[in-house]
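Our consortium's second objective concerns turning raw sequence data into structural hypotheses that experimental partners can test. To show how far this objective has progressed, the report includes one record in full. It was chosen at random from the queue rather than selected for favorable results. The single chain below, 529 residues long, was entered without modification.
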Amino acid sequence: MILADTTVDVLIVGGGVIGCALAYDLAAAGIGVKLLERDTVGAGTSYGAGGMLAPQIEFSEGGLGLEWGLRSLALYREWDHTICDRIGLGLDLDLSGVVRATEGGPDELGALAARQVQMGHVARLLDGPGIRDWAPGINSEAQFGLWVPGGQVDAWRATRVLAQAAASQGAMIHTGVTVTGLEDGAVLTSMGRLEAQYIIVAAGAWIPHLLDLPLRPVKGQRLLVELPQLLARAPIFGDSVYVVPKAGGRYFLGATEESDGGYDRRATLAGLTAVGAAAERLFPKLAQAEVVEQWAGLRPVFPDGLPMIAPAPQYDRVLVVGGHYRHGFLLAPVTARAVRDWMIKGTPLPSDFSYNRFDQAEKAVTEPPKKDAPVSAVSVSTAADVLRGEVTIAADPAVVYRVFCDPTHYPRLMPDVQQVEVVKAESAYRIVQWTVHYFGQRIEWTERQTWDGRESLEGDLLASNFFEHYRYCGRVTRDPIGSIVTIEVEMTSRRRGLVLAAARKILAQNLQAFLHALRQELEAVARES
């Protein structure tokens, strides 16, 4: 039980959709809430969001993201009715569905639909006429689509309604207040020092201004246009753009993902032109649309793409809730409910969203290697999707082959492997099929492994339900102090969000496991000799 007394105040820093959802759900449960926002409620990233609610598209591979997204849809329905009864205003919720459209063939959408049905969810393939029922103005070359449950909210309006609903339950909403510092159980602000039993930092991309956390802003630019004719009746996800119909013949077009601009929130011609061109390819009549508004904002992203919903390091009474990236509106209700249940019932927060994942990564980097057998830390570059690691020791090529190419070792080295099968084996290569279940995701791929018997190991992707590109290269380089075995893995995927983070995480963990096992095998051989 985190809060034995439900009248104890919780102070929330941040008035975006996450902060307002927290304020509403906590206040509705009888917890005294104060919310501080430096601008006006919903004026930041929440203002520019498209408001799409599409868990089966955003988290199509399943796992915790899909589970949370579907739970959020159910909570949205509950909140919409309850809030309307309390304050006479609803969330303007539209759950008529969402559509994934493509100009390519039906294979990818068919596989996506099959996975959704296999998981017990509704998914309907659309032919040309079917997709035009939902999107009359779509490009004539779009002959295939997929409809799944979901929908949208008016992002800015929904955020403000949540704030009003929170206030109706006793929450105190303070705008125009800048938080300048943080203490355990208190914040320093432009209106003085404010105390509470618990502080929740939900300041989006500005969380690092208060806490030393590895969160960075990713700029997104979008357009709001107006065209007095019906182009679409539901949010449409294209291959590189989304088009979301809004009231009054308006359409949200978005959005860029720019990770190298820091806190620059200026809209640029290059970014807006890219968005407009992609939207026009999907809906040619948008060429005649009037531009109503251009906007740029900052999405908060942690290195692994996952949010953080966990106590802050070095504090006993501070909780961090943020880093939802593109999924703030989708996951806002379930995030708020998880925090509420943690505070009132003591229900554990998801370990995958804890700070420990960063702490453990830092320890792996800073921990000194064993004497005479150094193993470098495995690093992950989220920009290039490259993982590297190496081990230095006297290397026997036969041992290298046994560790990296013998499938009997895989279950020991990779406990998350569900199935590994050698489809074909020749003297110089073998073809291996992998099935991995990790973080709720089922990731499958077939690779060709090539080994020259002494110094070179390579793996190339043949087929996968997840990877667009995947290869690894191992090299044994002779050195006076012992051979250096270096492994480099390159990966790009068709998916983003939690499933992509899961793939990065599993590759990093398993690469580290391989290197560790290789060192152990080589040391054992050295002792025996």
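The partners drew two points from this record. The chain has a mean pLDDT of 84. The longest strand covers residues 290-301. Both points have been shared with the crystallography group to help prioritize constructs.
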